[in-house]
Amino acid sequence: MEGYISIIFYCCFDRYSDKLSLLLSKIIVGIGMLYNCLEAWNELGEMINTYLQENLDPATPVINYQSAKELKSTLKLRLDNIGSDRQAVMAEVQNYLKYSVRTTHPQFNNQLNGGFNIEALIGEVVSFITNTSMATFEIAPVATLIETKLINELNDKIGYTNGGGLMVTGGSNANMLAIHCARNSHIADVKFKGNQQFNPCVFVSEEAHYSFKKAVMLMGIGLDNLILIKSDREGKMSSSDLEAKILAAKADGKTPIMIASTFGTTVKGALDPIRENQEIAEKHHLWHHIDGAWGGAALFSQKIGDRLQDAHKADSFTFDAHKLFGTGLITSFLLTKREGVIKAANSGGGSEYLFHHYENADFDTGPSSLQCGRKVDSLKFWLTWKSLGHAGLTKFIDEQLEKVSFFRNFILEHPRLKLVCEPEYLNICFQVIPKNSSLEINQYNLDLRFEMVKTGRFLVNYSSDKDGTLFFRHVFCNNATTNEDLEYFLTELLKLAQY
Ligand SMILES: Cc1ncc(COP(=O)(O)O)c(C=O)c1O
Fold first, then answer.
1. Considering the domain boundaries, does residue 328 fall inside one?
2. What residue owns the CA closest to ligand 1's atom 7?
3. In a domain, 312, yes or no
């Protein structure tokens, strides 16, 4: 392109030198590209604006429900030999927005990531434009310092005075990395010899996130060595069962390496007993990990922050900022009490081509990471924190906790709604009682839930207990949802439940 334009210049104005015509042509192409970019950007900006405004209208569906088969034929996801113009590309963006679930809609309370904040969006765009990898300080100087700052601030909140940490690709991977650190610090030889002769085992609540299962499968520890500890009706791990199972595992020739407590279980939002589990971990010289992927936001809470007062004694802590604070998938951390444990677990050589000895080598985060290329996930959280301040994040979580109280009281006061267990955090599990007493309550709630999804107006998930009780699981991760929205949801649900 530049070549053609410079030829035209050269032909038209042969008194100009080659160099000047090339420069002019570069400027023209540059302006053209910039204009193109700005035009696309403006168009996208308008679409996003409209999309976000539509969320404020209660008539806007959370989802334009179609079955997978229907959606496949609606979307016509063709890829052709000849490319499409921008108009066609933008039409695809419209379609994407139209049929995707609106997780920023006030009636989305389904998954542990919802809500929205503009600073996070800005951070995401800037991190894309600067498209770097977190491997070394040299290629990600600002991002490295920002990530380190976030880790230090979070460690401060936990109470780790000489802590470390790393941003990872999700809470699941943070949990796996924690097991990796625990195993490396308890039986360093595993790195060379594998698990076999050591038979390591890990203890988690039966309500713990399924990522622990995936982690032990992948790490060769094996599902039989992930020992599940009983939980009570509220979903909390039983410390007495924990101790009994540690003793049994030892007697069985296994090598216990880690207890993982969950602070904010996925389904019920239960808070495992951190202090009791810590005492047991110390007594048996085990690594204590806290999976606070969901509940770690309590570090900022005035209302329930004290429930984490013993967290500083634990060895590691998972925290997903994207779950509560609307920073967008993925904004995950593994935080450690001692600096350097992640790097020690992941060191293995072969990376000399990338990690050089230079004045900033100590700042390189790549040697600690399981990934080589690593996206900049820190900026969206840092900008969010910067804009809200510590106080804003405290207000954020405490307001969500107030909404839980409101919702709980509504349920308790209504004769056709039943609380499955008392909420401790930001999850409420409840059932609708059928009018017709001959209907089976679990099936009834399941049918209602899918009827509700198909209306497209609400998205709230369901789950079940170990005794088979099936219930709605409403999660309060969406800052856009107000008490009025909550009341509207329950009222409309009860209207649907006219049988
Ligand atoms: C308690 C808990 N831990 C870990 C995870 C996994 O987090 P991620 O989805 O970021 O991998 C979840 C996800 O919901 C969770 O609830």
1. yes
2. 171
3. yes
Q: Measure 219 CA to ligand 1 centroid, in angstroms.
A: 18
Domains in the chain, number: 2
299 and 166 within one domain: yes
Distances (CA, A) of 140 to 144, 277, 330, 377: 6, 39, 18, 12
Question: For the chain, what is the mean pLDDT?
Answer: 94
**Prediction pTM value:** 0.93
* pLDDT tens-place string over residues 355-407: 888 999 999 999 999 999 999 999 999 999 999 999 999 999 999 999 999 99
What ligand 1 atom has the least distance to the C-alpha of 208?
A: 1
Would you tell me how many other CB atoms lie within 10 Å of the CB of residue 78? 6
**Does residue 139 share a domain with residue 31?**
no
* 238 and 383 share one domain: yes
- Residue-wise pLDDT tens digits, 285-324: 999 999 999 999 999 999 999 999 999 999 999 999 999 9
Atom of ligand 1 nearest to the CA of 170: 10
- Cα gap 128→24, rounded to integer Å: 30
Among 400, 406, 398, 392, CA closest to 484: 406
Note whether 203 and 289 are same-domain residues: yes
pLDDT of 215-264, one tens digit each?
Answer: 999 999 999 999 999 999 999 999 999 999 999 999 999 999 999 999 99
In the three-class reduction of DSSP (H, G, I as helix; E, B as strand; rest coil), residue 237 is classed as strand
Question: Are 224 and 314 in the same domain?
Answer: yes
Closest CA to 336 of 167, 137, 188, 191: 167
479: in domain? no
Range of the domain at 138: 131-387
Measured in Å, residue 268 CA sits from the centre of ligand 1 at: 13
Q: Which CATH number covers residue 209?
A: 3.40.640.10
Give the binding-site residues of ligand 1, using a 6 Å CB cut-off. 112, 170-172, 175, 209, 211, 262, 264-266, 291, 293-294, 320, 332
Q: Is residue 115 part of a domain?
A: no
Pocket test for ligand 1, best of 177, 212, 291, 427 (most atoms within 8 A of CB): 291
